[in-house]
């Protein structure tokens, strides 16, 4: 989608530190990390948020979680990490393209925020 920064990163029109990519998903380091490991996992297909998922996206969402699993192991945070998806501005979603945050490398508290 024109004007979407994540679509631009997926098309390699904008530089980013990519840590994983395949035909469906791209993952890159967050520019404003909130933990020692903070990776954004993004579908190449432009989907605005969780509310815009359809039943045809089930495999894609599953794949995103498998990528999170792989990256947690690769970044050596498998003993404790979070996978977060913010949906909507009130939840903190700042880019209108579905994405998941993989956060690790520090102790997290509950409840968050």
TrEMBL record:
It holds the Pfam family DcpS_C. It comes from the Bacteria. InterPro entries: Histidine_triad_CS, Histidine_triad_HIT, HIT-like, HIT-like_sf. The active site is at 99 (tele-amp-histidine intermediate). It comes from Aerophobetes bacterium. This is Histidine triad nucleotide-binding protein. Residues 5-113 form the HIT domain. One of its GO terms (molecular function) is catalytic activity. A motif (Histidine triad motif) lies at residues 97-101.
């Amino acid at each position: 989608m024109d004007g979407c920064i994540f679509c631009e990163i997926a098309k390699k029109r904008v530089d980013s530190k990519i840590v994983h990519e395949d035909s469906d998903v791209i993952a890159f380091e967050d520019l404003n990390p909130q933990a020692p490991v903070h990776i954004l996992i993004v579908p190449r297909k432009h989907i605005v948020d969780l509310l815009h998922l359809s039943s045809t996206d089930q495999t894609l969402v599953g794949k995103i979680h498998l990528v999170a699993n792989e990256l947690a192991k690769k970044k050596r945070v498998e003993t404790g990490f979070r996978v977060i998806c913010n949906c909507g501005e009130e939840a903190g979603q700042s880019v209108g393209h579905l994405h998941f945050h993989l956060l690790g490398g520090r102790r997290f508290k509950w409840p968050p925020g």
